[in-house]
Amino acid sequence: MLKLAAKGELFIKNAGIWGCDMKIERKFTTAGKDAYASLDFITTVSEIRNPDGTIVFHLDDVEVPNSWSQVASDVIAQKYFRKAGVPSRMKKVKEKNVPEFLWRSVPDGDDVEFGGETSSKQVFDRLAGAWTYWGWKGGYFTTEADAQSYFDEMRYMLASQRSAPNSPQWFNTGLHWAYGIDGPAQGHHYVDYKTGVLTKSTSSYEHPQPHACFIQSVSDDLVNDGGIMDLWVREARLFKYGSGTGTNFSSLRGAGENLSGGGKSSGLMGFLKIGDRAAGAIKSGGTTRRAAKMVIVDADHPDIQDFINWKVIEEQKVASIVAGSKMHEQKLNAIFAAIKAWDGAVADAYEPKVNPQLKEAVRDAKKVAIPETYVKRVLDYAKQGHTSIEFPTYDTDWDSEAYSSVSGQNSNNSIRVTNAFLTAVEKDADWELINRKDGKVTKTIKARDLWEQVGHAAWACADPGIQYHDTVNEWHTCPEDGAIRGSNPCSEYMFLDDTACNLASMNLLTFLKDGEFQIEDYMHTARLWTVTLEISVMMAQFPSKEIAQRSYDFRTLGLGYANIGGLLMNMGYSYDSDEGRALCGALTAVMTGVAYATSAEMAGELGAFSGYKKNEEHMLRVMRNHRNAAYGAVDGYEALAVKPVPLDHANCPDARLIDMAKSTWDEALQLGEKHGYRNAQTSVIAPTGTIGLVMDCDTTGIEPDFALVKFKKLAGGGYFKIINQSVPAALEKQGYGSAQIEEIVAYAVGHGSIGNAPGINHTTLAGHGFGPNELAKVDAALESAFDIRFVFNQWTLGEEFCTQVLGIPEAKLNDPTFDLLKSLGFSKADVDAANNHVCGTMTVEGAPHLKEEHYSIFDCANPCGKTGKRYLSVNSHIYMMAAAQSFISGAISKTINMPNDATIEDCQKAYELSWSLGVKANALYRDGSKLSQPLAASLVEDDDDAQEILESGSNHEKATVLAEKIVEKIIVKEIIKSHREKMPQRRKGYTQKANVGGHKVYLRTGEYEDGNLGEIFIDMHKEGAGFRAMMNNFAIAVSVGLQYGVPLEEFVDAFTFTKFEPAGMVQGNDSIKSATSILDYIFRELAVSYLDRTDLAHVQPEGASFDSLGGAEQTGTSNVSEVSDTTANKSLEVLKQISSTGYLRKRLPQDLVVLQGGMADANAQLAGADPVGALQTLVPEVATAVSAGSSTAISSGGVAMDARVKAKMQGYEGEACGECGNYTLVRNGTCMKCNTCGGTSGCS
To answer: What's the pTM?
Structure first.
């Protein structure tokens, strides 16, 4: 075993872990004590909800370590707990030559009940138990004590979040060993570790499937084994079990190449589109997650230009579909409108020659290329009595019909470029595209022109990525068995075709103790995980014979780490600093050095991998190059065209790491020369998506942080803002005091209290007569207030206090234009400053006490908050990758973040820099390169003109902007129904008159027979003709949406809290007393009246709701009694037929509540009487404002935000998770992961 000597030197004792004198050391546990003895466990509730409030997953009494966050608890409970087949009672199965504690378990009897896992200990035990069991059988432990030590150490590391394996291990490993779970074989194979014979599995779980990453080959054959159609089947088998796969398709003939039976090939792209469709139809792991897939094509393929531009063109198709559908809907219905507006002879209405308005509408339609057949069809419809056309419109959401109708959306795409190609680009030389079969040149193009297309495609749609073929193969340990041509979906695993890799990552931050990195613990962890991954190869089954054989032959491992960004910030170093890069390089060097040294020790006991002997010279050359880089050498590398970035000894802030990096590589090379290596590869840096959440990592893989302020999930639901846990530690490291740190953190997250706010605070308010009681009311209301001005009113403070203490006359208090804070003498600047103090800025830029030279420590991948300007440069990402790449067997999964204003040339330069630094692969993501991801911060903030108008325009202009934007958001995007439900010719409704901010508003509603709202009319008294007309037209737009099936709830969520003048106090309405705009008032009124949204009312409506039962005892008012059930039901029906649901605010007058009998009868009556009420019982509404009865019910916000836009502001990507629907996706290597449920688009 590698051990640390007193002076920090590394030495080997005897034969290694498996020598007769060696013991597996314990670092974290004690012999004879429970592995979890030093950890506290608690029970919690795990619940994950969709954005609409529906429950995706719920489990009570989940046992997890006390230190785990709610998100980590949710992820292990939802993703990794086995949901079925766990017996309530088990017995051990005796097995010869196996220690008793490793005997596997089976159900104890036929009467056993089965359920799911409920404790994280069950998961840790089955994982570590299965590894130890197979390790014992494979000869990896000399004594039972060794096995017990290993078992305890592995369980502790999982529970303490020090490390975690890839997701398939959590899904599959240990189910057969721990619970006796089994099932029919699924077509898998394994190589028997005793005989070395390839064997077909007879069980689905005895040999688990722990591998996440696969590389598969494809031959230029249509239907035979190993061919194109066979690949789709092989991919499906992997996707089904949650793994990812990549394939280089360059062996397929290009378009126009000859076929053996005569004729010409249709080319590569047709088959790629078929595979893309197949992958899109298969949902990984039985969830709604898209398949994880990589498509690779060499740069000299005849169809390379089509491949490069594939996704660009498909995204253009999406844009065309979205814009075209909206244009069709607009122009075709304009023809109907022109016909409807005709007031002459009926027959002439349909003749463009006679009807000038129709002629103009037809001409407008033709101008935008609406097909004449559609124009003619509309005229024919109109003649047959139709008054509108239902033309479906589409949007740019990732899961929309527009995206699903195009190809290329289910994979990451990369091209393989050689040094020769990149040199040709530099020299502006020619580049030849080569036929696949005869090797002839099919086309000659300029290399620089092709490179321009690559840069444009990456700029426009974030694909393709680049894989540097020669760099990858110069570090290849087994070139005698063929070149490396492919990778897994995330690009970190690069090896021979038809091989697999299982991954594990260490959480670097857990090794930081009292500001010092615990190098011995880190090395110990790396050693044990190398053993674990090796055991996993031995015990695994694989989805094809070829992969089973080659994975057994080469035994590639994928040890890596996560949270380098969090570690550097905690230690006080910028991600973009020489010190940060040196630390990263040193930690990577130590990890891989230890892994190869351990691999060599295992080779000494169990033999080197079968392909080692013929590749020995190459592999030792690669080891010498790694060692040379660890020594910081600039020269002396063997057979490398591009020199690697050596370890930066001078700038590493911890000299121990440099010494250890050199020592580990000395030992790795020395032992390898003696024994060979058990594994052809040992390390990668994976995205650590789901497992990063299980380990509570602030940052994933080698990525920097994406935001300083996180939204932490609460056990009971909801979120609260919390600073990144690394920020306070970094500030302390820089010498800031606790009081200063508290102020800096509060600057970012907000204080939630006005206590010490500038200008307006407890002291200044106390000077105006505010007592402790009033100050407490204000602070309580501020937690959910958008603007502090909406808290300072008579409803929060009480009318008595306002009139008697503050001396405000009652008449003025009820004046809609009255501003309480202004009346107390506070300026607009005071209010703005106080608002920032209360709500926070989500950035540390401009924070009190924070020195500007320390800003760089807190730089993230993107600007933070609304006011943040700083973010990491493109090159900083690449230099960090290069610092680690010199010590990684495989490659690195990482996204190079680029700002929206990056140019095509910037993309090309990023790729060229990566090549020059020896990086093996690179994927770019320019902000806004995907149509589905917004750049905006609210409904209108993506439109500067609209934003300016809302801030300073006239009422007419404001109404125009809002109508346009809302119609685009709701009418266009949210229509689901395919037909319009006509209103009855004679309908009921009500008229509500009110005064909003001194302006009279008349609201008239129209209802369907069942009482549902179908139309609204809005009239403004004495307003300018323009504003009045626009409000009327806005009401028509909303009415059309309602009649097409847009739920009223959508309008309410969109328009409540919109903020523009006129606004203020509301008079004449019994439930609503204040509004932030006319629209806010109207949709509060509609929500209260038709949806029973009492949370949006300031005064509770009187009476019982239609679906209220009883209530007479509580109110002390007698209901009409002695009425039969039948009579009651009929009376209710008659009442509902003649009265307006909205007028009654969905409530019956108290003396008309006549329901009698049992609860079941009442519910049945109500279901028949009030379909709306019944539906609301089935689908609970999720309140978007303050809960009913709260003193902050008058609080208001700005323009209602699109969920994607809000997510973008919070630092997320702005796309919805395919599994839980929440907009909490973050970049994760070249993939994305969900911070709510842990779902990932990758394979880890």
So the answer is: 0.74
Our CA angle for 200, 203, 208, nearest 5°, is 90
Asked, as a colleague might, if the bond just before 1180 is cis with ω within 30 of 0, I would say no
Asked if 391 and 327 touch (Cβ cutoff 8 Å), the reply is no
What gap in Å lies between CA 206 and CA 202, rounded to an integer?
9
Q: Summarize pLDDT for 968-1010 with one digit per residue, the tens.
A: 443 343 333 446 788 888 888 989 989 888 888 889 999 988 8
Cα–Cα distance, 431 to 410 (Å, whole number): 30
Tokens 């006796």 sit on residue: 180
Q: Which stretch of 85-89, 502-506, 829-833, 1222-1226 has the lowest confidence by average pLDDT?
A: 1222-1226
DSSP codes of every residue in 569-606? HHHT--TTSHHHHHHHHHHHHHHHHHHHHHHHHHHHHH
Tally: H helices and E strands in the chain: 42, 35
Contact 1097, 1150 (CB under 8 A): no
Residue 1141, pLDDT above cutoff 80: no
Q: Which of 474, 492, 546, 1213 is catalytic?
A: 492
Which one, of 744, 603, 745, lies nearest residue 678 by Cα? 603
Q: Please, is 1025 exposed, middle or buried when counting C-beta atoms within 10 Å of its C-beta (0-12, 13-18, 19+)?
A: exposed
Active site residue 488: yes
The residues pairing with 441 across neighbouring beta strands, listed in sequence order, are 434
Three-state DSSP state, 63: strand
d(CA 886, CA 343): 80
Please indicate whether residue 490 is annotated as part of the active site.
Answer: yes
492 given a catalytic annotation: yes
> The tokens of 183 are what?
């099932």
Q: Is 970 exposed, middle or buried (0-12, 13-18, 19+ CB in 10 A)?
A: buried
Residues 6+ away with beta carbon under 8 Å from 851: 734
CB atoms within 10 A of CB 1115: 12
Cβ-based burial of 74 (10 A; exposed 0-12, middle 13-18, buried ≥19): buried
Q: What is the dihedral of CA 603, 606, 611, 612, to 10 degrees?
A: 20
Give the pLDDT confidence score for residue 552 in this predicted structure.
95
Q: Match 């109404």 to its residue by tokens.
A: 959
- Beta strand spans in 449-556 (E): 465-468, 499-507, 512-513, 516-517
Residue at token pair 């949650």: 242
User: To the nearest 10°, the Cα dihedral for 588, 592, 594, 598?
Assistant: 160
Candidates 355, 435, 488, 1228; catalytic one? 488
Dist CA 718 CA 714 (whole Å): 6
Given the residues 213, 478, 490, 1237, select the one marked as catalytic.
490
Tens digits of per-residue pLDDT, 465-515?
A: 999 999 999 999 999 999 999 999 989 999 999 999 999 999 999 999 999
Return the residue matching tokens 């809907």.
329
Contact criterion met (CB below 8 Å) for 401 and 339: no
